[in-house]
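Running this now, will post back.
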Amino acid sequence: MTSPTTKNKITIERKDSIQIETNIQTGLVTKSKVVWTSPCEYKIIGMASNKKVKDGVDSFFSITPINVTIVTTAKNYYIFQIKMDSATKHVEYSDTIHVEK
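Update: finished.
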């Protein structure tokens, strides 16, 4: 997937309940647990990354599950919306993932 916001290309691999995201430009690799809550909804729970220096954003993602809803599906892509809530922040974002096999 290429993010329209950052223009970074990110590959996403899923094996069972583990998701590995690799940012092609930066080399950042993150590993997360995926927990399906319904056929079109799941939570992503951060587990680890290869980022050497952690910051406040990393802490937020490591303790705040990302709630994902698949809004639309097609043959080669799907549109999703994420929501994250903590005591101090609310984040919403929508994007498209193109499926490559």
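The two ends are 13 Å apart (CA to CA). More later if anyone needs it.
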